[in-house]
Specification:
By secondary structure, the chain is of the alpha+beta class. The protein is built from eight helices and 16 strands. Strand 6 and strand 7 form a beta hairpin. The structure holds zinc ion (ZN).
């Protein structure tokens, strides 16, 4: 019964959609965050980053008017109807099937819409716009939530330029020369050594291994060769990690860890990055630290510091050890237990590395 929008338009739509569906599939809650149909007939949507949306149009019949709908990943909690005005009969939010969300805009029967002129435009990673009609008479705007970008008001991390709906913009990964660099990523601990144990039993070894694997994937996509010192839960001593990087003649070495505070104080949170020697190591640390802070608003900047950790002291290339938060801290732990945040942190680390390589490499 329902038809895709005219082929050309649909291709245009799916162009944006596929672009945006490559990473981070949304599992649980609806990826539709806010929507508004403005007085000028423009529908604006705000979604989670990297949402997968699909738009459809169905010509009206004797029972229904024309209908336009957009399907989003993630399940809607409360299906609902909102009364329309002007050319709009009603707007419905529903779940067509499990794990999905559908926003339906139903026109009044007498309205003839012209989908051939419609263009869905992606404004950024989170926002979409499509003009559906030109109101002949006044049309009262209908919507839920805020589509506009908002700057989150967070004080603790003063130097963070973090904007809630924009982190992916800031994380757009820089391009560098293909197949030129080898990066060794070292997920801390492993096996019998779980590293820090945080709130609710969250284990450092699990968190840093997952983050490391995502960093590897992101860098590989950018044409960087990446080796992990460990791929699974093995107890790996420090000297083989160093030997591995030195033997491979890696360009840089990045060891990824998460912190624990003495006495497991929940009020201690923050991120820090260590290097041992050289301006290159320091620069790499600075780049990474800057990026991880951006995705961790409110968590204190503990700075870029010189540290005497074995793995960064004994590797021969620029080497850093990054602490991506306190598993014992209330704020950091709550974030680090979520896979969405682990992905953000991994993005940030990958971005810092790529920026360094594009500058120095
Ligand atoms: Zn550690």
């Amino acid at each position: 019964m329902s038809k895709f929008l005219n082929n050309k338009l649909f291709r245009y739509l799916s162009f944006f959609l596929f672009l945006n569906s490559t990473i981070l599939p949304i599992k649980s809650s609806s990826s539709l965050a806010a929507w508004v149909l403005n007085t000028n007939g423009v529908l604006e949507l705000r979604t989670k980053s990297n949402s997968n949306l699909k738009a459809y149009f169905q010509k009206g019949n004797k029972i229904y008017g024309d209908r336009f709908w957009v399907d989003f990943s993630g399940e809607l909690k409360n299906p609902r109807r909102i009364k329309g005005n002007g050319p709009i009969k009603e707007i419905r939010l529903g779940k067509p099937n499990k794990g999905k969300t559908r926003l339906v805009i139903e026109f009044k029967e007498e309205i003839y819409s012209n989908p051939l002129t419609w263009r869905m435009v992606g404004l950024d990673q989170n926002r979409w716009r499509i003009k559906l009609f030109s109101p002949k008479y006044s049309f009262k705007k209908i919507g839920e939530g805020t589509v506009e970008k908002k700057i989150s008001r967070i004080k603790a991390n003063q130097n963070s330029s973090y904007m809630k709906n924009r982190f992916h913009d800031s994380l757009k990964l820089p391009s560098i020369k293909q197949n030129k660099f080898l990066v060794v990523i070292d997920p801390g601990h492993g096996g019998l050594d779980p590293g820090a144990i945080g709130i609710g039993g969250i284990r450092e070894t699990d968190v840093v291994l997952e983050v490391s694997k995502i960093v590897k994937k992101l860098l590989s996509e950018k044409g960087v060769k990446v080796k992990l010192t460990r791929n699974n839960e093995v107890d790996l001593d420090l000297s083989p990690r160093v030997y591995f990087a030195n033997n491979k003649n890696a360009d840089i070495f990045v060891s990824i860890h998460a912190n624990a505070s003495r006495g497991k104080r929940r009020d201690i949170n923050g991120l820090e990055t260590f290097y041992f020697r050289g301006w290159r190591g320091r620069l790499l640390a600075k780049r990474i630290q800057k990026e991880i802070l951006r995705v961790s608003p409110g968590s204190p900047d503990r700075g870029v510091k010189q540290g005497r950790f074995y793995v960064i002291k004994n590797t021969r290339m620029p080497a850093v050890l990054v602490e991506i938060g306190f598993l014992t801290g209330r704020l950091d732990a709550r974030r680090l237990e979520k896979s969405a945040h682990r992905k953000r942190i991994a993005y940030a680390i990958a971005k810092g590395i790529l920026e360094y390589l594009s500058k120095v490499g």
